[in-house]
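Please, structure for the following, as tokens.
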Amino acid sequence: MKTILAVLILSVLSFGQTTTTQDADALEAQYKTCAKHSIPADKCTPEIYQQLKAKDNAPLDPKTATVLRAVKEYQSRLKNPDSMQLRTAYLTDEGAVCLEIGAQNGTGGISVARVVYITPEWKGAKRLREHWLDEGGFGGSGSASLQRDNGSGLVVDRWPGNCQKMKAFSGGGGDMKPGTDVTDKVNQALKRLTQ
């Protein structure tokens, strides 16, 4: 009888400790989520936490998802994928993913490239669909040399004509073509993937 009573008391005590641990874990998750969204701890109510959690777990809109896939593919091709810094992510209405990405180069410095991925939904020439316009391919290495020579600070710039309207006399890029800037959304999605 004493043994059963001892087991029962230990069970009740361990249940109380488990509940406390779960509550502490839940509070820690709540405060981490609020801190990530710059919400002070004293303002981080359970209702606000649930809203932020739902926002963080919401599916990406189709444009952001398209650009994120392209970013992840490009990142996998870098010498040091962890060094990638996404500066601009833009999807034109024509279906071109325009990326400005900084990443570690072979000498340990950071090189910046403006590359373009042509999506399957591209409204231009069908032969370009699902292709990268970057350091390789037609004019790729020549384009990179030209960028170094003109002092633009870019390793390669494939935006003019694809992401930017062409300037009449200079041949360089002008204003961005109509589309959607998804830089912040893609950076947030990349951050969630690494947490």
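The chain has two domains: 2-57, 62-194. Confidence is low (pLDDT under 50) at residues 138-150.
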